[in-house]
Amino acid sequence: MKLKIAVLPGDGIGPEITQQAVKVLKSVADRFDHDFHFEEALVGATAIDQLNNPLPDATLDLCKEADAVLFGAIGHPKYDNDPSAKIRPEQGLLKLRKELGLFANVRPITTYSKLIEQSPLRPERINGADMVIYRELTGGIYFGEKFISEDGNSATDICTYSVSEIERVAHLAFQAAQKRRKKLTLVDKANVLETSRLWRKTVTELAKDYPDVKLEFLFVDNAAMQMIVNPKQFDVILTENMFGDILSDEASVIAGSIGLLASASIGLKAALFEPIHGSYPEAAGKGIANPVAAILSAAMLLDHFNLTEEANAIRSAVNLSIELNVCTQDINKDNHYSTEKIGDFLDGLISDNDNISINNENLNLGQMTII
Ligand SMILES: NC(=O)C1=CN([C@@H]2O[C@H](COP(=O)(O)OP(=O)(O)OC[C@H]3O[C@@H](n4cnc5c(N)ncnc54)[C@H](O)[C@@H]3O)[C@@H](O)[C@H]2O)C=CC1
Ligand SMILES: CC(C)CC(=O)C(=O)O
Ligand SMILES: [Mg+2]
Fold this sequence. Notes:
Layout: E1 2-10, H1 14-32, E2 35-40, H2 45-51, H3 57-65, E3 68-73, H4 77-80, H5 89-100, E4 104-110, H6 113-116, H7 123-126, E5 130-136, E6 146-148, E7 155-157, H8 163-179, E8 183-188, H9 194-206, E9 214-219, H10 220-229, E10 236-239, H11 241-255, E11 262-266, E12 271-275, H12 292-304, H13 308-323, H14 339-351
Parallel strand pairs: 1-2, 1-3, 3-12, 5-10, 8-9, 8-10
Antiparallel strand pairs: 4-5, 4-11, 6-7, 11-12
Bound molecules: 1,4-dihydronicotinamide adenine dinucleotide (NAI), 2-OXO-4-methylpentanoic acid and magnesium ion.
């Protein structure tokens, strides 16, 4: 298959993790005889530094004409620490999501047997947890009007949702539930928020089209607790933009690290693939960031084009690397590998996958022992 992939590395650890994801995609292209063409563009703080614009026109044009976008992360402390900055890196990502119509953000959460014992959560509670969060991505409070009073003493963020915005992401969530364990949990705050009541009403109505899916409702405060005490109850979670943002970072504790959670942001025409984490500025350039979230996002990109065997080759390589403890320091504190070495290792596994047997004792990432 021929694919043009726009690559937006962004800020902080964005470039180093994206580089590993591109490396792995090239290795998939070689092994499965595909023609993937990559083109890079600026976004976020890096784009502000160079062009005073967090989403330059050239970047948006490239994303619109590409088959898919591979996104790293944006964000820089100089903006995080300056609340009065008018031009901000996050505006680049939000505008990109809006312009490409990426209304659904799909965030799968699974566990890895090797990581369950070292989790801060009780092993018996998380073992077997497997859920996917459908987060609405182009509406709600992140996109509502914002203003600050002239005297600077009050500020407002408006949260708006329309029935059609709720329906289009809800349809995708119901369809996902039909292919999974047939349970959908709508997370909202319908006891307080008018928008949440509209979500409940709309989703309840839509559920009639999906009689095989069991629909449940949970207030977001309770959901945040249930995520930790009984995550196995969840199959598909459907929720609005901000709640999904927050709950998915929390859910990453179940997987073992936020550096493992990938996502697909999809719309009717475009699709963008991005780790759920941010630019982790403290780690930038140190080679300690986990590239797996970016690499699994690349696997979701392949899924999107029905390249299932190819996506599974990436996931198998990731599973094996975790099984062998070939991990960055967020997972393996004592004997960790660098961001680049993880990319090299997965690249090697994918390229030589026909005949892999790994001698764990002699595992040497400098000269990888793959026989
Ligand atoms: N999609 C995006 O581009 C996002 C951007 N941001 C931006 O990122 C910047 C930093 O925000 P934070 O709140 O610190 O969130 P963050 O996700 O960048 O980092 C939070 C913590 O998660 C861990 N972490 C994140 N990515 C990791 C990785 N790949 N490997 C290992 N550990 C990892 C680290 O312990 C880190 O301190 C801000 O400017 C924020 O606006 C935040 C979230 C998403
Ligand atoms: C700009 C933020 C909304 C990014 C973020 O935290 C996310 O999408 O997870
Ligand atoms: Mg987030």
